[in-house]
Amino acid sequence: MAGTRLRVPFALRCGAFLIDYILLISLVVLGTLFARMLGGGARAAGNSAETAAILLAVVVALLNLGLLPGLTGLTLGKWAAGLRIQKVGSGNPGIGRALLRHFVGYPLSLAVFGIGFLLAAFTVQGRGLHDIIAGTVVVRESSV
Predict the structure, then answer these.
(1) DSSP letters of 41-72?
(2) Is the CB of residue 120 less than 8 Å from the CB of residue 1?
(3) Quick check: is 3 in a domain?
(4) In angstroms, rounded to a whole number, what is the distance separating the alpha carbons of residues 40 and 126?
(5) What is the CA 19 to chain-centroid distance, rounded?
(6) Has residue 82 been placed in a domain?
(7) 8 A C-beta contact, residue 59 and residue 82
(8) Helices 115-122 and 10-37 sit at what angle, rounded to 10 degrees?
């Protein structure tokens, strides 16, 4: 990862974001579909299936948006798009910084009508509000 960091195209960041959230939403959708297939007679089992799907989505979110990027700089979406999250200097962000970025920074970026995300398209370093809050930057993965 030595050398100059290039600004990541905004569309590529959006693609990585979509991959991460499609994964989470699909878990909830599949759990809901499974619960509906159990039908009316198995209402308690259906409710349990929905609850299990939501809990699984929360666990996957914590792993994919907190633990994995904290230790490796990657979420599944960032990995698929060839991107990496780093501290502003360099190096992996750490679990605390990753949790701050995704679970505080993302809601705040969204709360201002998504303008926090759009900052990444217009700032020189390509950092969104969530990156500024957490002291991170998204870079292209080095091809070694």
Answers:
(1) TTHHHHHHHHHHHHHHHHHHHHIIIIIHHHHH
(2) no
(3) no
(4) 50
(5) 8
(6) yes
(7) no
(8) 150
Quick check: pTM over 0.70? yes
Residue 28 lies in a domain: yes
Q: What is the pLDDT of residue 13?
A: 95
Check residue 41 and give its pLDDT. 52
pLDDT averaged over 10-residue windows placed end to end, the chain, 144 residues: 66 96 94 77 65 92 96 96 93 95 96 94 93 96 62
What's the number of domains the chain is made of? 1
Whole-angstrom CA distances from 125 to 53, 77, 91, 106 are 38, 20, 16, 18
Structure token pair of residue 138: 């998204």
Of the candidates 35, 58, 33, 37, which has an alpha carbon nearest to the alpha carbon of residue 45?
Answer: 35
Supply 68's token pair: 């994995």
Strand partners, 138: 85
Structural domain span for residue 74: 10-140
Residue 24 in any domain: the answer is: yes
What is the pLDDT at residue 29? 92
Cα separation, 114 vs 135, whole angstroms: 19
